[in-house]
Amino acid sequence: MFDKSKAEVLQCIPLSNNTVKRRVDNCAQDIEEQLLNKIKKSPLYALQLDESTDTEAKAQVMCLVRYCSVDDNGKKIIEEDFLFCLPIDGNANAASIFGLLDSYLSENKVMWSNCVGICTDGAPVMLGAKSGFKGLVLRVNGQIQFTHCMIHRESLAAGLDQESPFHEVLAAIVKMVNEIKAHPLQTRLFKILCEEVGAAYTSLLFYSKARWLSRGKVTRRLITLRSEVREFLYAKQSPLATYWDDPKFVQQVAYLADILEKLNELNVSMQGRNANVLTLSDKINGFQGKLNIWRRKALHDTFDMFPTLHGLLEEDDLLIKSQITEHLDGLSGKFEEWFGDLPGEELDWVRNPIRVEEWDMPLKHLEELSDLQADRSTMQHFETTPLDTFWLSLSADYPCISDRAVRVLLPFAATYLAESTFSDLTYIKNKYRTKLDVRNELRVATT
């Protein structure tokens, strides 16, 4: 912050061997106490749970919480925060994960009965209805709503399996990238070539199956540098160079770059804080509608929705129309399979209670909804107030319908926060600090 002379002065100040750790622990303890007090005051709360391994290959269970609170201005809001990160010494099975969570909630006097939803990554150990984590939780509270992370489902729906007409194309792309990137010398020579010709980039990107955006980024970079890659592979006398002499292959890579980029945009738009099942469902439904539009346009030989492919068609005739329509049909079917349970019109009253008629409710709820629609002074704030804040503000005058809406908006719809917190865990507990107990450090870093 200042200069080296100030740094030298600070280094002369003696500290005990645990001064920093003691202060971190004190901060973490105070933060945890404040958080638990807020959760206990909240009438309802929801959890987000995930399990992964750290740099020491030790299983860590990550849990985040969403609850009702009050801001500095006295408005009721929904907040989300880091709850705990605890290690599992033995097998990371359903019983171990449930025991860890149950012990933490019991020790801190957080009631299971107030939990309305749990979001997980959809692994069998988590969503097993009988012996899985889900089954164990439902024995304690049968009203808890379980959600399979919608970002994870989007990645599964967008996958290129062996039945896909572009599976072999992706395999060839990976081979080309590895041919250049796997060897440092080849990487340097390729960089020199790109600099000499003034290319937009000077390197390719490695493909990683575990990173959901990797396919789109790798394919986009490759199609952008296709001329340089073709020249470099021919100079190496690689048999992979002949792929670029086939106009059909070039069109396949161009289409993959376009469609995977659109899928990446959908994935990124679903990431972030304060996401609920309604907001993410709208994004999925919107993308499914665009898929239908693209299918119809492709059947009529119009491909302006895929700009890279459309640019190639100015020079060559389209050779992959049947593959494109087949892939779009398969993609649409997969989205229907993975997202067939999304809420539809039955929850429109939560999105906009002004003119929606809803009959599938108890009588008391219907009566309150009718009174709310006639309450013009209250409905004037609907357009200018966040959806969760609006429904929470009605808890005193319309308790039944407010509670019903909050139970829809409160549960997590994705495990984005857990995944991003695992990134923080990897940064804090790195290869130089493998023995560090990170639970307090992580709380201070992520709260």
From TrEMBL:
<protein>
    <submittedName>
        <fullName>Zinc finger BED domain-containing protein 5-like</fullName>
    </submittedName>
</protein>
<dbReference type="InterPro" id="IPR012337">
    <property type="entry name" value="RNaseH-like_sf"/>
</dbReference>
